[in-house]
Amino acid sequence: MDPRQAKNKVGNSADRAAQQAADHPVVLILARSGFVVLGVLHILIGWIAIRIATGSGTEEASNSGALQAIAEAPGGQVMLWVAAVALAALGLWRLSQLFTGEELKDKAKGAVMAVVYFALALTTSTFARGGSSSDGDTASDVTATVLAQPAGMALVILAGAIVLGVGLFSIYRGATRSFKKDLEARAGAGNTGSAIVAAGVAGYVARGIAFAILGGLIIWGAWTNDPEKASGLDMALRTLGEQPAGAIALIVVGVGLALYGLYSIARARYIRM
């Protein structure tokens, strides 16, 4: 057999194995549950943001803050173990797009989101074991380490620009309702409830605003050589709240993040997998 044919045969076998693993009913059920977990986290982050805006909360408005809130609830650690498994399954499903995605952008998106979900699953397992972490401390430590390297400023500015771009694209998705195709692919065009769409619009715009601010802070932190400015989502939301009429803006964004959480829970049912 020609070496290239043998290589292609092995590659095709690996692709089929990856697809079979990702398509296993248990993996798909858990992956859909992963969207529910993301929804719950966004609802909690939104609630924390509202509490910060009203001066009644000191929690961290981030995934870590939301996970800490779950850990402190009755049966929280058990729920966190279930959430960690669901997020890992969601990461596995995203990873399968490297082998099954027809377009390069699908493969790239699958790879990036797989890393995000696996990292979140790892963080969730840390809280499930009784530990804790801070998104803000992690972000500032990583930024400081990168800034200390040759061309570190350029790399951090590039990272900030990417986060800013993600935020602007999220706003675009919400404003144009382009996210509807993810839902209608399974539900059937036009069958997606108007309430779900409205939650998606508000949610994508709110997330976009938060990530756009975060991207700007990362860039500013690199430019001023101040890693503390790049301290994650919590810092971005608190920065918004410190602006003129910031409390109102933060409440609006907090509500939007909570609505994105409701959209994500609905997405668990409707997204094509």
TrEMBL record:
Pfam families xrefs: DUF1206 (PF06724)
Sequence ranges assigned to domain DUF1206 in this UniProt record: 34-97, 111-177, 202-270
InterPro entries listed in its UniProt record: DUF1206
Entry keyword annotation includes Cytoplasm: no
UniProt KW Transmembrane helix keyword: yes
Segments passing through the bilayer: 26-50, 78-96, 108-128, 148-172, 193-223, 243-263
Keywords for this protein: Membrane, Transmembrane, Transmembrane helix
Protein name according to UniProt: DUF1206 domain-containing protein
Highest classification ranks of the organism: Bacteria, Bacillati, Actinomycetota, Actinomycetes, Mycobacteriales
